[in-house]
Amino acid sequence: MIKGGSLLLASLGLASAVACSSNNSIVADGGAAASCSPAPTVEDTGLQECKGCTTSQACTPSAPLEGCCTWVSEPKSALARATTLHRYNAPAGDTAVDLSCLASPPAQGTPRMVTLTGYVWLFASGLDSQGVKVEVFKETNPNTDGAIDATALGSYTTSTSDAKYPLDTTWSSKCPSPDGCSFRRYTIANVPTETPLVIKTSDATGTGAWATLYDYNVYFSNSSLTAGDGGADVARYDATVAAAGDPGSVAGTVGQTISAGAGLLAGEVHDCGDVRLSGATVGVTVPPAQGNLFYFTSDEGNPLPDNSSSSTSILGLWGGVNFPTGKPIRVTAMGKDPASPGKYVMLGTYVVQVFPDAVTAISLRGRRPWQP
Predict the structure, then answer these.
(1) Residue 88, number of CB atoms within 10 A of its CB
(2) Which stretches within 266-346 are classed as H helix?
(3) Per mean pLDDT, which of 142-146, 183-187, 255-259, 346-350 is the most reliable?
(4) What is the mean pLDDT of residues 162-191?
């Protein structure tokens, strides 16, 4: 059973320049949408950032669905929540995909300055996330052009003296027994709640051990705060770091290499309860310079592209190689509504930028408070 309403999407016809006045609307499964014929009647749900947008891209048989001026491939199976993961997993027994925030966003509260804390998780390679610089930035124009402020709100560099993630990590094939991996704790003071943020992780060792990664669409509502060690409210978020060789390994799996000065774009698709979703497809308004977007296997400890997959696994993870830097790129995810498998839903849309020789990560988490 679906919780709440659905953000709907349109599938529009062939055009070299498309005005998206009826985005986010339901279309029937297959039929006109699959063949790029004129769209059926659509229902506008009022997502303001999508009204009147235009794109020079055209519908194709391989990407016939349109949402917020982004063309996306047709999902083949109904969305499903991840239930066997260690991160962004569904609570026990709660398998109902949460689409409650899609018809309208949750309210945005008044910002408060709090302490941010969490652990730095390893994307794949490495045994110890020490020597990672964690920085927090505000988005300059949230979900408009992908720009971030020039100066960080705060930073922290992890070391071997920082506390380790307290739970077992030997479940990962990359973290062998008996000790597993060490995900080090970080803490940054004076971080605003109710504010769109970007968390950057990078190398602080001087050896080039870690890649640079920008994590977009990070947000702490006042209601999500918990009590810290001293009793004051804190925000909690586990950042991610990639080893220097991880981006190249991902690219190599799909037969590509990362060009100097270009960037890698990747992300996850979550529902409104921040649980990863399988069965989702993703599109971008600026295509990669090489190949197409790809999806990953379900191996949480060692995620690599699955060349045979056309939608997300339970990791909700997708990616692409060699994107142009310094320009806005809209990312949009689609899925089949489990309650009505003949209908498509737009699971989220967001604008980011890619940075030279870095990874940009964007987890779509439904409709956000600043998306009226």
Answers:
(1) 22
(2) none
(3) 183-187
(4) 97
If DSSP codes are grouped into helix, strand and coil, which group holds residue 50?
helix
Return the closest-CA partner of residue 338 out of 255, 262, 253, 275.
275
| Distance (Å, whole) CA 27 – CA 103 | 16
Q: What is the DSSP string of 107-133?
A: PP----EEEEEEEEEESSS-SB-TTEE
pLDDT of residue 26: 34
Vertex 201 angle, CA 200 and 207, to 5°: 140
d(CA 114, CA 188): 9
**Cis upstream peptide for 106 (omega within 30°):** no
pLDDT of residue 40: 29
How sure is the predictor about 37, in pLDDT bands with cuts at 50, 70 and 90? Answer: low
CA distance 246 to 127: 13
Position of tokens 């391989």? Answer: 62
Tens of pLDDT, residues 130-173: 999 999 999 999 989 999 999 999 999 999 999 999 999 999 99
Give which of 354, 321, 329, 155 is closest to 246, Cα–Cα.
321
Q: For the chain, give the percent of residues with pLDDT over 90.
A: 73
Strands 65-67 vs 70-72: parallel, antiparallel or unpaired: antiparallel
- pLDDT value of position 8: 40
Assign 32 to helix, strand or coil. Answer: helix
The CA distance from 103 to 83, in Å, is: 25
Beta strand pairing call for 263-269 and 359-364? parallel
Q: In order of start, what are the domains of the chain with their CATH numbers? A: 18-86+247-364 (no CATH), 113-244 (2.60.130)
Q: How far is CA 225 from the centre of its chain?
A: 22
Residues 65-78 have pLDDT tens digits of: 888 888 888 889 99
For residues 259 and 266, give the distance between their C-alpha atoms in angstroms, rounded to a whole number. Answer: 16
Round to the nearest angstrom and report the end-to-end CA distance of the chain. Answer: 25
- Give the helix ranges, DSSP H, for the chain: 32-35, 246-253
